[in-house]
Amino acid sequence: MTTKQFDVVVIGGGPGGYIAAIRAAQLGMNVACVDEWKNAQGGDALGGTCTNVGCIPSKALLQSSEHFDHAGHHFADHGISLDNLKIDIAKMVARKDAVVKQNNEGVRYLFKKNKVSFFHGRGSFVAAKDGGYELKAGDETIIAKQVILATGSNARQLPGAEFDEELILSNDGALRIPAVPAKLGVIGSGVIGLEMGSVWRRLGSEVTILEAMPAFLAAADESVAKEAAKVFKKQGLDIQLSVKISKVTKGKKDVTIAYTDAKGAEQTLVVDKLIVSIGRVPNTIGLNPEAVGLKLDERGAIVVDDECKTNLPGVWAIGDVVRGPMLAHKAEEEGVAVAERMAGQHGHVNFNTIPWVIYTSPEISWVGKTEQQLKAEGVAYKAGQFPFLANGRARALGDTTGFVKFLADAKTDEILGVHIIGPFASELISEAVVAMEFKASAEDIARICHAHPSLSEATKEAALAVDKRTLNF
């Protein structure tokens, strides 16, 4: 039996992996992708963590819970009355699963369209061979001239509170809770903790978030973080900072968390479910890097240079398994760039213009530098801010929470950072990304005509505010 040979084999079918495979195929290479994700029936489930237990299903649940929250608290403002409001959790989860399946099938279709061969199973190195690499692809052995590693990341476990996905949950279990828990605990106030806490808070859970850091949303601009903390508290999220977890004890039907609070007092919290979201770790489980001498760093991430090349000739790595932010869209950009570099082109990824988004309500997004970073770096800057309270479209939506904030160089007016908290922040941030990629000034955005009435006018007004000349506030 002849061993199948490919120009490129991608290990991992998540956003970075499947996009890299498609782009390499578009550029004329003979490409295969190996991925081991399984659906409930044991079949393949292309799309990686993002599609199966991350970005896509969490947004589906966020949307469902937001509809429920609006029906219970905001429809009356529009003259819409509902009696006996209730939610069918099983149906909500089934809809989420259907959305995931649609995305799984979408990737499979794209592979077929672009003639990418797919192997369902774990991908791993066997040996270097004939200027390329021998790999295991599930039950088969294949040969690759070049390899792209896109194996993603796994949820970090808290020692003494290992995941059972029944009472102590990772992002996976948090997406499959069968009924609304009366009390929900969340360890970690990052993106996953806030989004999942928001879902179940809207549906009726009493949610307590325990965070070890003294600052809330330390990665975000301080003014955005302060606004978010105020809004989330008003919504009912109990966020406690500077917490030190002493012990987590799992009972038959609940979980007890012993911890020290910010004042040094011993506290005990008993919850029906506990979500642990304390970050993610690079996934190289079963990759067998030792077989070929692939270099990993102290965190277990694959070591790469600025072009995503590893220490091995013809082996590249992208996404969560390498340095940089663990974001699906960052992995996609690296995947495209690597495929183009393989083809002799000049793939490009600008880490300074990668947007960040938290899909809470209000949404939070940003790109570029925060005000505290500019201060620490000694950069002279100007700031401009505009509230959604003064935006006509936001008023019509009934959601005037938050603001848009611009940071621009004090001398050149080049945009250095844009920070948004408010309705559809995830969509509004794209204008700022484009502007920064082309090194636009705040004046450039201020001079561009924005449709009226639209939320994007808040972006224009914030740019005007840099020069202290807003028109509507």
TrEMBL record:
Residues in FAD/NAD(P)-binding domain copies: 6-335
Record bears the keyword NAD: yes
EC number, as in UniProt: 1.8.1.4
Cell compartments where the protein resides: Cytoplasm
One Pfam family recorded for the sequence: Pyr_redox_2
Cofactor note: Binds 1 FAD per subunit.
Main location: cytoplasm
Gene Ontology terms, MF aspect: dihydrolipoyl dehydrogenase (NADH) activity
Name the record gives this protein: Dihydrolipoyl dehydrogenase
Organism: Pelomonas nitida
Lineage: Bacteria, Pseudomonadati, Pseudomonadota, Betaproteobacteria, Burkholderiales
